[in-house]
Amino acid sequence: MAKVRGAVVVDTEVCKGCNLCVVACPTLTLALNRNVNNKGYHYSYMENPENCTGCTNCSTVCPDSCITVYRTKTVH
Amino acid sequence: MSVLTERINQIIKPENLVYAKTPLLNDDAMHYCPGCSHGVVHRLIAEVIEEMGIQEQTIGVSPVGCAVFAYNYIDIDWAEAAHGRAPAVATGIKRVMPEKYVFSYQGDGDLAAIGTAETLHAINRGENIVMIFINNAIYGMTGGQMAPTTLIGQITATTPFGRNADLNGYPLKITELIAQLPGAAYVTRQSVQTPAAVRKAKKAIRKAFEIQAKKIGTAFVEVVSTCSSGWKLTPVASNKWMEDNMFPQYPLGDLKDSGRADADLYRIKG
Ligand SMILES: Cc1ncc(C[n+]2csc(CCOP(=O)(O)OP(=O)(O)O)c2C)c(N)n1
Ligand code: SF4
Ligand code: SF4
Ligand code: SF4
Ligand SMILES: [Mg+2]
Predict the structure, then answer these.
(1) Is ligand 4 within 6 A of the CB of residue B36?
(2) Is B144 a residue whose pLDDT tops 60?
């Protein structure tokens, strides 16, 4: 059966590591990276990419508009 | 390439795109602190303007406060007003160019302290503008001093033992006052701390811009907001503090909608 699959791309240099996307993600896909970007922020990334459904909750709450979301039904 | 990376690459393709930053938001990184509500509201305004196709017809008036540089972030025409004077500047622009969509964007210090007179009189005149009100219960820009909207007991730089009504007066529910004015066509209070709240707030902002085209008075959207730097909490803890403390004082929802029969009655009599 085709399952809904998603993926996000975080603009890691724009991300400020606020953590709001991490707590808004219903599937525990996201986490803050232990590495930091050039501004010194622990940027958000897909720690569990297989969980993502492409629901857009993370991009909806991100104050810095740094998340792009993709979704498909065709990947198995 | 690992199986996982391969699978992710299969998903990340233009035809699968479901959300991307609107081109109306410029590429300049916003100067706001991590997690600041201003950033979310800027995006919602940009998305609404894009979806309504009114980029060339919209003029924003930015305030003094943390949003003083709002004109750097949304790719429309802007004017910058002196502290609290955005409704007066917006009035002038709208009266000279009535075909434009004009909005002010103001914090609680700007709108409900130094600019109270401009705010109330612009709305009482029924100016056909949108006013976006970011209520974070503090003067964010200047280092977290008490605002008129600061809660009783709330610690700020100027109320180190918490706001005390005997000394500092009461939190000003200016949105409730505004709803009484006959010139106000639409008055609503929203928030942006969860995906559901953000989606509702966006609908409210869209409605406010649509009301402007009807020329029936001022459309006023308060967004109960966080200021994690001023509140000295993390962004996530700020959202929780806002839900627990701000929402009881500033309950969410529509306060007035000119579409309602009683508002029409008020309009005729008032
Ligand atoms: C005439 C004038 N008085 C005072 C100030 C100092 N000042 C700058 S921003 C501000 C308050 C900003 O608070 P608010 O409107 O709530 O915006 P926020 O930063 O919280 O978004 C004050 C008092 C000023 N710039 N100009
Ligand atoms: S799109 Fe949904 S599931 Fe995927 S990371 Fe964002 S919030 Fe989580
Ligand atoms: S919400 Fe945006 S800025 Fe905050 S951590 Fe997530 S991606 Fe970064
Ligand atoms: S001081 Fe407060 S209102 Fe200003 S940018 Fe920082 S969090 Fe936002
Ligand atoms: Mg403020």
Answers:
(1) yes
(2) yes
